[in-house]
Design brief:
Helices cover about 20% and strands about 25% of the residues. It is built from two helices and seven strands; from the N terminus they run E-E-H-H-E-E-E-E-E. It has helices at about 20-30, 35-55, and strands spanning about 1-5, 5, 60, 65-75, 90-100, 100-105, 115. Strands 3-4-5 form a three-stranded antiparallel beta sheet. A two-stranded antiparallel ribbon has the order 1-2. It has a two-stranded antiparallel sheet with strand order 6-7. Helix 1 packs across helix 2. It is extended and about 55 Å long.
Length: about 140
């Protein structure tokens, strides 16, 4: 990817997103519960998480990370603390912080560990993409 006349690597998604049904089937295959039971838990999870977060709490899912709401405020702000009101809130965002795990640094490292934020211990293998970059549509002529 070219930004400001410099080239940088960019990750590329492969295939279509993994569906809830695919997740349910795989979790069922790797556990003692049925795909229907997994789907029931997933169905209940989102509104329950939203309820807790609406109460101002964060939700931590072990092995995944922490979810919480933040307010989106109107641009410009106000001059004093006393002028701040809920009327300035224009929206809400869901924020996510991946769980932190610790990995050993190389031999001879002073600290011996480094923090890594990620969803799992899976090592990602990067490879060069040999496909073609999508072309931007041509601008219409005036």
């Amino acid at each position: 990817m070219k930004i400001n006349n410099r080239w940088y690597p960019k990750s590329v998604l492969v295939g279509s997103p993994v569906s809830t049904e695919q997740l349910c089937k795989r979790i069922a295959a790797e556990s003692t519960v049925s795909a229907a039971d997994v789907r029931a838990v997933f169905t209940a999870l989102a509104p329950i998480m939203a309820d807790y977060m609406a109460q101002g709490r964060s939700v931590k899912l072990d092995g995944i990370g922490t979810f919480y709401f933040t307010a989106v405020a109107a641009k410009g702000g106000v001059a004093t603390e006393k002028e701040v009101t809920t009327n300035q809130i224009t929206g809400v965002r869901v924020r996510f912080i991946p769980e932190t795990r610790f990995s050993k640094n190389g031999a001879g490292s002073a600290a011996g560990k480094r923090a890594i934020r990620g969803l799992s211990d899976v090592e990602i293998e990067w490879e060069e993409w040999k496909g073609e970059e999508k072309k931007k549509p041509a601008k219409p002529k005036p």
